[in-house]
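User: Structure tokens for this complex, please. No commentary.
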Amino acid sequence: MIKKEMIAMLLAGGQGSRLGVLTSRMAKPAVSFGGKYRIIDFPLSNCINSGVDTVGVLTQYRPLRLNAHIGIGIPWDLDRNIGGVSILPPYEKNVGSEWYTGTANAIYQNLEYMESYHPDYVLILSGDHIYKMDYETMLDFHKGSGADVTIAVMPVPMEEASRFGIMITDDSRRIIDFEEKPEKPRSNLASMGIYIFSWETLREALVTNRDQPGLDFGKHVIPYCKEQGRSLYAYEFNGYWKDVGTLTSYWEANMELIDIVPEFNLYEEYWKIYTSSDIQPPQFFAPESSVERSIIGDGSEICGEVRSSVIGSGVRIGKGSVVNESILMNGAVIGENCRLEKAIVAENTVIGDDVILGAFGEAENETKPGIYRDGLVTVGERSVIPSNVRIGKNTMINGETTAEDYPGGELASGRTLDKAGERE
Amino acid sequence: MRAIGIILAGGGSNRMRELSRKRAVCAMPVAGFYRSIDFALSNMTNSHIQTVAVFTQYNAGSLNTHLASSKWWDFGRKQGGLFVFTPAAKAGGNIWYRGTADAIAQNLDFLKGCHEPYVIITSGDCVYKMDYGKLLEYHIDKQADITVVCKDMPASVDTERFGTIRMNEESRIEDFEEKPVVAHSNTISCGVYVIRRRQLIELIERAQAEDRYDFVRDILVRFKDAKRIFGYKIKSYWNNIASVEDYYRTNMDFLKPEVRNYFFREYPGIYTKVVDLPPAKYNVGVRVSNSLVASGCIVNGTVEDSLVFKGAFIGNNCYIKNSIILNDVYIGDNTHVENCIVESHGTIQANSYYKGEPNDIKIIVESNERYVI
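Assistant:
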């Protein structure tokens, strides 16, 4: 018999549409972060560092990049004879084939996978947060408190509490009530979307509620467990935890990495973050280059100036170009004498010579003002921008653009130029 | 592929000076993130050789750590794999490898147990890329007993530290001198050989019976007339790193774009163990010029015309020039390092001053208490 005390189920199927064009061709957990990483590297590394060596990754939206990245799990040491990482897509059944319609529904559809490991506990994770957390400590808390369900929470400023799911606890951290995005929060403990369930509790709740449309942990499963009189506890986490759900928070979280002593430190010897990287050579700085307050990935060639930026692996920046407060993902190529201000340039994008990103004054984005904002210029992956164009703020460019797309060599602030089609 | 591979990685070298105290030459870090043996191993795997034996002896610790998993070179296979042979205690007396031929002789069972008809032998201290498949084709075409890979060195290079070769028009080797006092040729042996497996077993057994232990002296030089030994000339990049001067020069070659392109970008690649370091980080007041910086480094000072290897820390206001900073070195603030190689894991205290000469590279071995970063 195979037996694992705790297995993890990692929800990685969501699109993350608030990241705009960054998730047009890949699921949010696959989006690059911090130079060489992808968002999913953080929960996966947390798993192996916590001694959880059996992880089911539930995929649905655009899984190719995730599948390729995870492979058989070698970078995280999750290539195991027993357990290891398994990718779990939705599948066809005799009757009632369906997509994953909700977070808990996705877990329910993989009951058989979980049962095969005879777990005592199941850890539910989502693949879209940046943090380092020891799930083993959380499990100890779960066992020690005699909980059926433990929900990881973190204290947030009271004024922001109304943006989160809030847990109200007694002195022993037992959850006595919870409220979703309350107007007048009674507590500041926000749910992090990380749960430990005792196996029987989880199985019973999923099976009983299987016909609930869009079965969701926060909306259905947790309230159900509460109603049934299960004991729910809140596990308080006080480290760095960042939701990178919007372009602005994604940009900010990247920028936080370049502080002299960043709050989220990637340079610690223990609790390493692992990733699959096929580019490893050192980075080269040409004689005329300059660099300050930046992190730069392997194999990049810098001939220009890099200031306060996060640069991925295999990036090339041409002579005379200035990159400021920007994020360049793996394989981006910037020509000569360009100027990039607050740009997010996705993977393998090619930018010609004498291009300005982030020119002109502010203007609201014409198509998605809630996404492309705060002066950011966002360029989708494998895009091409021709030489001699000036591009304004709050803009989005996607696909192979040519000089004809820029009348007068300009793209005004707030414009959206999508030649690939965001949902292609 | 119809060959197995043998990598001779046992040697130390006095010419590496202090750098060989810690490790075998084949485990020397190269170009910021490789180890020297990665070149031979990657060439093997890129040539579809599935079974590779590595003979180690001198200071094998870091080499064995590097080879602890063979998956980085794709040798973690059901068929074949990577086999590391270090001298072991045996019934009948414990004997070190007394030479390259002796290393093979002491592990002859391995060679006998293989079924591939050919053997590619290479040293592990050279920086090069080679398709051994083409080499084997040439060997078969020439109906050679042994084929030796060789390269014409520029007249300016002093060839006396290599084996030198003279060939006739059909590339058959007429003269082979190991480390000659006065070199008669500027064609040198690159330390890469092809030989039929049965032929090798036979020659090794013969050498063993006569208490001869060196592959070059006791087999190549001795049989150069009796056997058909051919040369296979290469024109591509090849360098040996087994002396401080060669090591320094070879590393500095990676500051040239054509060398970087050839090894870092062109197909096929050179692989190495993955160490999971974060991207390099640059703080305020940094100047980096014509230099390579590997992952995991934190740079605060000035680096010019230098290589900074994985995980190094360079303090505020430092000045690093024409130097090689090896893995995990910590350099305190206000330190001047010029024309130096800083040994790995070293800790240099703040306000230090080290200066070598361009033709006399200084090696810095400092093991001070490491400050908490």
